[in-house]
Design goal:
Layout (H helix, E strand, L loop, with lengths): L12 E4 H4 L17 H10 L4 E5 H4 L6 H18 L5 E3 L18 H20 L4 E5 L4 E2 L7 H22 L4 E5 L8 E2 L4 H8 L8 E3 L3 H5 L5 H10 L6 E3 L18 H13 L6 E3 L9 H27 L1 H10 L15 H9 L4 H5 L5 H12 L4
Parallel strand pairs: 1-2, 1-10, 2-3, 3-4, 4-6, 6-8, 9-10
Antiparallel strand pairs: 5-7
């Protein structure tokens, strides 16, 4: 029997080298899996049926590699991409692991650190361009403080803006076919993070010299760990035309960076997210920025990767079912029906509309009596997701 939940290239499923390549280290435990080369990880990603592979600069090339070593690694990676058919939709820079970034990168107080971060990022942008990455992501992993005595937050904003403006100009100067996506994270690894949410990032982008080049890369776990509604943030980014890339995983609310398999924890949130992406015809990469359990060997890591994609495809199928369900859609239609032609009173301001809305007599007591049937709609959704509808 044909399994219709197998990934296809048009699904644009992507894994980072750091995801399937995770050795299972955590703050309390040493690695449980042997480290694999970038070429081995890419072949694993291709083996499970994904479309693409994303990378940090140092996922592919060690930070202290010589020019000769760099050229050899890049040559080998090009061969693997040609062999497997994988593409590189997104690249990014590791500005958080090395000790030099202990006080941040672009917002660090030491100008030597900021200058090194710019130099490292320029090299990494060139690396991404070499592999035809169309999106360049910035996650400010150490951009923050443990004490507000350490930095003036206005200075931090200005330093961050200066760096982003520099990179936009560089991309334009090099004529790279590349846009930038900023990745917010409300919690960790600093005590308090700058530009912590999708909303912060959207506001910051509008202050840049080239806001048209910059969007966001929201991540499920980042929003869930802070108790935020990920769908709402994604929808705001989409409505602003700024959803350039997306990281999919799962996370228990209030916990720290679990990076679980997509849909593992909150299946209903995952469902409405998938439904939104499919309904609006989001055409970007669907990147699973997650990790297998520390209990797994590399066969288990492959199971994890396949599970991320399979869950997405099952939820995509459920979304199509939800959109076609007559009872559900009749409820949706009723909920959005135009009672007494009131929608004509709404819209763009005009003197005529102002006069009409002022002259209308609203029976607020009667209007308030209306039941919304949200309980019924939600249970129908649960029935559908649990396979009894």
């Amino acid at each position: 029997m044909l399994d219709r939940f197998q990934p296809k290239p048009e699904d644009k499923f992507v894994f980072g080298l750091w995801t399937l390549g995770s050795v299972g280290r955590d703050p309390f435990g040493e690695p449980v899996r042997d480290r694999k080369s970038p070429m081995e990880i890419a072949r694993m990603i291709a083996d499970i049926g994904a479309w693409g592979v994303n990378l940090h600069d140092n996922d592919l090339i060690p930070i202290d590699a010589s020019p000769t070593e760099q050229d050899h690694i890049k040559s080998e990676f090009h061969k693997v991409l040609a062999e497997t058919g994988l593409v590189v939709p997104m690249a990014t820079t590791n500005l958080f692991t090395d000790p030099i970034f202990k006080d941040g990168a672009f917002t660090a107080n030491d100008p030597r650190v900021r200058a090194y971060a710019v130099q490292k990022t320029l090299n990494a942008i060139d690396l991404g361009a070499e592999f035809n990455a169309k999106i360049y992501v910035f996650w400010g992993g150490r951009e923050g403080v443990e004490t507000d005595a350490a930095k003036n937050p206005v200075d931090a904003i200005k330093r961050n803006r200066e760096a982003l403006n520099f990179f936009c100009e560089y991309i334009l100067d090099k004529k790279y076919d590349m846009k930038i996506a900023l990745e917010p994270k409300p919690n960790e690894p600093r005590g308090d993070m700058y530009n912590a949410t999708i909303g912060h990032m959207l506001a910051f982008i509008e202050t840049l010299d080239h806001p048209e080049m910059v969007g966001v890369n929201p991540e499920t776990a980042h929003e869930h760990m802070a108790g935020l509604n990920f769908l709402h943030g994604v929808a705001q980014a989409w409505e602003c035309g700024k959803l350039f890339h997306i990281d999919l995983n799962d996370q228990r609310f209030g916990r720290y960076d679990q990076d679980f398999r997509f849909g593992m924890v909150d299946i209903k949130s995952a469902f409405f997210l998938v439904k939104f992406l499919e309904d609006v015809k989001y055409d970007g990469a669907r990147h699973f920025d997650a990790h297998a359990f520390r209990t797994e060997d590399y066969e288990g890591v492959k199971d994890f990767g396949r599970g991320c994609m399979r869950t997405y495809l099952i939820l995509k199928d459920k979304a199509e079912q939800w959109n076609k369900d007559r009872e559900i859609q009749s409820l949706v239609e009723e909920l959005n029906s135009d009672k007494d032609g009131a929608s004509a009173l709404l819209g763009t301001y005009s003197p005529e509309r102002l006069a009409k809305i002022r002259a209308t007599n609203f029976d607020r007591i009667e209007i308030a009596k209306r039941g919304m049937a949200y309980e019924r709609l939600d249970q129908l959704t649960m029935d559908l997701l649990m396979g009894v509808r």
